Amino acid sequence: MIHDLKKLVFVAAGSNLQPEANLQRAVRELQAAFNGVHFSPAYRNAAVGFVGEDFINFVLKFSTKLSVHAVIEHLQRIERLCGRERQAPKWEPRSMDLDILLYGNLICDEAGLVLPRPDLLRHSYMLGPMAALAPDLQHPVLHLSMQDLWQRFDRAAHPLQEVSFF
After folding, report:
1. What are phi and psi of 156, to 5 degrees?
2. Assigned domain for 138 exists
3. Could you tell me the sign of the dihedral formed by the alpha carbons of 76, 37, 141, 6, in that order?
């Protein structure tokens, strides 16, 4: 059995507290932590679940031999560097949010880790950038492309505005 195969990882990134500065720092840290990082366009969207400043979001991808838990540790370290407090309530402003959407074709439902991330199908700020970055990628459970999922999504109810970021 070969354990050193690389996994293609997709991560959602977002911030609504000094988003440009925090996301630029996160991009630098992500590029230092993972080789060959590619980014979707960035999008501005209204806060979801609470009243607050707009978020800027994008999705990134990279290949790694690291375990999913090691990737999470790197992401949480980057969140902390950007001022994120892990114990903060879920629905409030964020200096940095980095969430794994897909880790290869891993299907997982354990405490603190559900993959593919269910929010991918619920939030335009995840699915829209994902479809822009990897339109032909198949969802590992639904077996539909990200582009197909995005075309079925109620985009009018969850508008995204592309912003110049990269």
Report:
1. -65, -30
2. yes
3. negative
The Cα–Cα gap between 138 and 33 comes to 26
User: Strand pairing partners for 62?
Assistant: 9
How far is 53 from 159, CA to CA, in rounded Å? 15
The CATH number assigned to the domain holding 34 equals 3.30.70.560
In a domain, 90, yes or no: yes
Residue 94's identity, in one-letter code, is: R
Give residues with Cβ within 8 angstroms of 11, minimum separation 6: 30, 59, 60, 61, 75, 98, 99, 100, 101
Q: Provide the whole-model pTM.
A: 0.94
Residue 2 domain-assigned (yes or no): no
**How many domains does one find in the chain?**
1
Tell me: the pLDDT tens digits for 8-49?
999 999 999 999 999 999 999 999 999 999 999 999 999 888
User: What pLDDT band is residue 50 in, cutting at 50, 70 and 90?
Assistant: confident
- For residue 1, being part of any structural domain is answered with no
